């Protein structure tokens, strides 16, 4: 008679965030027991996992939530000792790069110090979990080469990038010095309909849908020439899981390998809802398009410029393809279309 195979336990910090919610979907679909750490301030902001919480066959049976702030290491320690996870996905923290210039201290506390505390707690566990640390392309900042790969030197240009560089290096130290199974996923921008409202991609998608439905509010954007390597969050979630399911821990760039500007993202999003924008010239500060008897404007507002803008961040994920068999299939244009159409559906309800 065979013993029943133990159900795998997953712990996700930042489960109410965009990527955390997709990881929860993925692991619950695979029959895992999923635990999530939720900030006390987010106890009423759980819309991304509400479809799981509202399902009586899932919540309390396959999905369990625990409440703690990242600076509360005592409670996080208690949760880790209680749940004894097989895999820990550490995604939580202040993740808005522009905002990190306004709140650099709390960004570093949440992103750098909290990661170190979690690594220390895991080091004390009898059976430490495999750990995924959500690093970021912002560690490269003003890179010495393009595209960037795992061996590219860190040259962060933002407080958020500096905090992530610290946490990423610490994760590597704990892997080498203490034998923890820790992977750094150096993820480039990943978007989806679950993206937060304060991110430019969500702003663009929401405005495109609103304009397509006849509203005339002006959309204000920052640097239209800023370029990012934008991918699709559900695909990135699968890459994260693949890292911890590999035989040995390592660091991987997660990216599409294609760079697109804010202008190009806006063009694709508006085109997806039937509006053709006509940006003219790199220094163009305003674009208008006819709608009925009036004109709708998109304006550049210097307020949204960053004090320092990273240069040409585009990732080379060939190592992830070679070792993990992972490759992104959806790039910025596809992401913009998905988000704009999802906004159309949402706003029509």
Helix and strand content put the structural class at alpha/beta
In the CATH hierarchy, what is the class of the domain at 9-193 and 232-257 and 310-329? Alpha Beta
Query: Over the alpha carbons, how many angstroms does the gyration radius reach?
Result: 21 Å
Strand order of the largest sheet: 3-2-1-4-5-6-11
Major beta sheet summary: 7 strands, parallel
**What proportion of the residues form beta strands (DSSP E)?**
15-25%
* Estimated helix fraction: 25-40%
CATH fold assignment of the domain at 9-193 and 232-257 and 310-329: Rossmann fold
Shape verdict: globular
Unreliable residue runs: none
**N-to-C CA distance:** 53 Å
Could you name the CATH homologous superfamily of the domain at 9-193 and 232-257 and 310-329? NAD(P)-binding Rossmann-like Domain
| Overall pLDDT confidence | 89
- The number of helices is 10
Got a strand count? 14
Return the CATH architecture of the domain at 9-193 and 232-257 and 310-329.
3-Layer(aba) Sandwich
| Elements, N to C (H/E) | EHEHEHEHEHEEHEEEHEEHEEHH
Task: Provide structural commentary.
- By secondary structure, this protein is an alpha/beta fold.
- The chain has a 7-stranded parallel β-sheet, with helices on both faces. A 3-stranded mixed β-sheet has the order 8-14-13, with helices on one face. Strands 7-10 form a two-stranded parallel sheet.
- The model has no long low-confidence stretch (mean pLDDT 89).
- Helix 1 packs across helix 7 and helix 4 (104-124) packs parallel to helix 5 (159-178).
- The protein is globular and about 60 Å long.
- It has a domain at 9-193 and 232-257 and 310-329: Rossmann fold (3-Layer(aba) Sandwich).
- Helix 2 (50-53) links the parallel strand 2 (33-38) and strand 3.
- The protein is built from 10 helices and 14 strands.
């Amino acid at each position: 008679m065979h013993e029943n195979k133990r159900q795998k336990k997953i712990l996700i910090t930042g489960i109410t965030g965009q990527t955390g919610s997709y990881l929860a979907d993925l692991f619950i679909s695979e029959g895992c027991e999923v635990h999530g750490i939720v900030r006390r301030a987010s106890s009423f902001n759980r819309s991304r996992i509400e479809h799981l919480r509202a399902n009586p066959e899932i919540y309390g049976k396959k999905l369990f939530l625990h409440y703690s702030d990242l600076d509360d290491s005592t409670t996080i320690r208690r949760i880790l000792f209680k749940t004894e996870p097989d895999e820990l996905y550490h995604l939580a923290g202040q993740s808005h790069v522009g905002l990190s210039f306004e709140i650099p201290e709390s960004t570093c506390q949440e992103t750098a110090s909290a990661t170190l505390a979690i690594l220390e707690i895991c080091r004390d566990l009898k059976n430490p979990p495999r750990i995924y640390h959500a690093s970021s392309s912002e560690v490269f900042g003003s890179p010495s080469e393009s595209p960037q790969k795992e061996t590219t030197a860190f040259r962060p240009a933002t407080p958020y990038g500096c905090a992530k560089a610290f946490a990423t290096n610490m994760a590597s130290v704990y892997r080498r010095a203490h034998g923890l199974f820790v992977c750094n996923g150096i993820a480039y921008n990943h978007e989806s309909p679950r993206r937060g409202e304060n991110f430019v991609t969500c702003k663009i998608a929401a405005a495109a849908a609103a304009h397509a439905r006849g509203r005339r509010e002006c959309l204000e954007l920052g640097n239209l020439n800023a370029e990012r390597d934008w991918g699709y969050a559900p695909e990135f979630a699968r890459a994260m899981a693949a890292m911890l399911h590999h035989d040995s821990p390592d660091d991987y760039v997660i990216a599409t390998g294609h760079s697109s500007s804010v202008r190009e993202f806006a063009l694709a999003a508006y085109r997806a809802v039937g509006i053709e924008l006509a940006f003219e010239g790199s220094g163009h500060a305003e674009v208008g398009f006819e709608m009925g008897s009036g004109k709708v404007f998109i304006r550049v507002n210097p307020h949204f410029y960053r004090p320092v803008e990273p240069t040409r961040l585009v990732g080379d994920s060939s190592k992830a393809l070679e070792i993990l068999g992972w490759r992104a299939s959806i790039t910025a244009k596809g992401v913009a279309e998905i988000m704009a159409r999802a906004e159309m559906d949402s706003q029509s309800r």
